[in-house]
Design a protein that fits this description.
heterodimer; A: mainly beta; 7-stranded mixed beta sheet; 4-stranded antiparallel beta sheet; 54% strand; B: mainly beta; 6-stranded mixed beta sheet; 12 strands; globular
Chain lengths: 114, 111
């Protein structure tokens, strides 16, 4: 079975540039999550969707961050403009959406903003 | 509010020694608890879960965790660790659609 697929795996760009991270969840999963992981702050939930609808975006740090889920098989996380402090590993995860079901994580995108 | 506390940020241990990674939770509703493992340069993977029934749950690679309601704990144990168990371990609590993760415990297994 294909797991959660994230692209790119690595991204290096200069500050001020727009960054777009992509995620393809597991087919049939109704919930999708975006996380950010850093040494200082650990794993932070940024936003999650249920049935393509954003349910809770309280973790999105600033208006520079936005996320979309135009259909059940694709989501994007965009940062515009990017700043060095956005450097982190960004994970996408999906789950069936039923209570007590674990999340399945992608391998992450390692983002470096110079 | 629901929360998860992992009491140790790092646990060094020698190969073949036993290990316990501690996790306490706070919840006012029925709990579903998980342990996830993260190997270097990978995402988190489910290690084991407690939903209901037997309070002792096991993983396929020798880890086990015991749900203790009175102590609000879900500690992870392994009687004999291997070098390959070196990873970060996250305790997590289900809350509706989303999961609350602990800060993680980095397990270092030394030869």
């Amino acid at each position: 079975d294909a797991g959660v697929i994230q692209s790119p795996r690595h991204e290096v760009t200069e500050m001020g540039q727009e960054v777009t991270l992509r995620c393809k969840p597991i087919s049939g999963h109704n919930s999708l999550f975006w996380y950010r992981q850093t040494m200082m702050r650990g794993l932070e939930l940024l936003i999650y969707f249920n049935n393509n609808v954003p349910i809770d975006d309280s973790g999105m740090p600033e208006d520079r961050f936005s996320a979309k889920m135009p259909n059940a098989s694709f989501s994007t996380l965009k940062i515009q403009p990017s700043e060095p402090r956005d450097s982190a590993v960004y994970f996408c995860a999906s789950s069936p959406g039923d209570s007590n079901q674990p999340q399945h994580f992608g391998d992450g995108t390692r983002l470096s903003i110079l | 509010a629901q929360s998860v506390t992992q009491l140790d940020s790092q646990v060094p241990v020698f190969e073949e020694a036993p290990v316990e990674l501690r996790c306490n939770y706070s919840s006012s509703v029925s709990v579903y608890l998980f342990w996830y493992v993260q190997y270097p340069n990978q995402g988190l993977q489910l290690l084991l879960k407690y939903l209901s029934g037997s309070t002792l749950v096991e993983s396929i690679n020798g880890f086990e965790a015991e749900f203790n309601k009175s102590q609000t704990s879900f500690h992870l144990r392994k009687p004999s660790v291997h070098i390959s168990d070196t990873a970060e371990y996250f305790c997590a609590l289900e809350e509706g659609f989303k999961t609350i993760f602990g800060a993680g415990t980095r397990l270092f297994v030394k030869a």
